[in-house]
Amino acid sequence: MEALILYFVLFFPAITTAPFVAAADTVLVLPFSPARELGRMITHTLPGIALLLYIIFGKDFQKDTSKSLCRKSALIQAVLPGKRDILPFVCALPALVAIGVGVSLMVSHFAALPPPVKIECPASVAGWAAVVFACLGTGYMEEIFFRYYLLSKTETLIQHEPSRVVFSVVLFTVSHIGDGHWGMVNAALAGLLLAVLFLRFRSLHGIALAHAGYNVFVYAMGAL
Fold it and tell me: Which among 46, 51, 111, 112 has the fewest CB atoms less than 10 Å away?
């Protein structure tokens, strides 16, 4: 229940305001605004990250019981940056780019579906700085919730690991409904990849930085 409440608080506003319905020949363009991106970071993303970390490392986390010591150790180990984050980053970033490019190449073979949403790229250095800042915030908030929280903290409630992965991927996919059909396909594949990498390496920073890097790549492709 806690996970679903957090999901609706942090991600449901984007779902309900998503321009999901479009004609097959209509290309939706999301305009870029540095002020809007920074405002979203200050009013939504950063408070969301703070809320997630408070819940993960809140009062319940401080209660030492023999049953939870291993889980606590794994949570702490994942959030501490280190050399172990390098390999997950190196694995995740090119794989995410490959998924994004692959999905883009599939678009022309399925003309019945609406084309993917186009993202307007920034036109100034300040705009690109806002993009990097916003992508870092979004990457960390989504990885903290969909991977770090759903795949680790909920393991006492959902002990079957594949079920936690499916739960995480489904919620991650639905949260990208605003990106259209192809954006949801991309999110499903990316979510599965990131879930597997997190479970393999238990690295938050590696996959969060790769996620942020991919989001910057999307903006860069829009510029081209």
Answer: 112
| Cα–Cα distance for residue pair 141/208, rounded to 1 Å | 8
Q: Can you list the positions of beta strands (E) in the chain?
A: 29-30, 118-119
CA distance 183 to 176: 7
Give residue 59's pLDDT: 55
Report the residue count for the chain.
224
Per-residue pLDDT tens digits for 2-26: 888 899 989 876 555 555 444 445 5
Distance CA 10, CA 8 (A): 6
pLDDT in tens, 63-76: 555 555 566 666 67
Helices and strands (H and E) in the chain: how many = 12, 2
